[in-house]
Amino acid sequence: MAGTLPVPSVTDEYAQRVTKDLSENRGEQERVRAEVARLQSELAALEESEVLLTKMQEVLGGAPKSPTKKKAKSKVAAVPAARFNSETPTVKGRKSGRKAGVQKNASPRKPGEPTWLDRTTVYLAAQSEPKSAAEVTSALADAHPERTVPAAVVRNALEQGVAQGRVERSKQGRSVFYTSIAAAAPESPDPVQS
Hints:
It is elongated and about 95 Å long. The protein has six helices and two strands. It is mainly alpha-helical and 194 residues long. The longest helix has 53 residues, at 7-59. It has a two-stranded antiparallel ribbon with strand order 1-2. It has helices spanning 7-59, 67-77, 116-125, 133-143, 151-164, 181-184; strands at residues 167-172, 175-180. The chain has two domains: 6-102, no CATH class; 109-187, Winged helix-like DNA-binding domain superfamily/Winged helix DNA-binding domain (Arc Repressor Mutant, subunit A).
């Protein structure tokens, strides 16, 4: 029986190859899930920014327009639902578009809870010198560790404060700094008492 093939070794080789391929497939699935979650988180931040920018546009007297939102929804709807399993959030809703581990701020703002504009202006009012958007973002992230503090949202809140006259913007070279109007206004003597 010298002509028989070593069947167990061929089977073992195929089994090892299938196990390796299966492991690589699962790893790739995880990578894609992580990328989808990152993109969904980025989309949620952009949608929050859009809301703030729309409000700023209304304050400045412009008519809000959002034709891109309808296009974005149709693109999202074109993704087959079969690509997502029960562990992966859906793309349709803004709240459900967040990563499972980052849902600490997925709930809507409760009545009476301060807005990002309120938080930025309160922080700036307590400062003795102008702060950059990055410094404000970092301080708010430290003050609110239970929430995700997107830098774009803080920048938009600061610009909304400028538009509403609550925050003053100044440039030093290429850098932009913000100060609370209350903190920026120097106390002037009362002209009636002089």
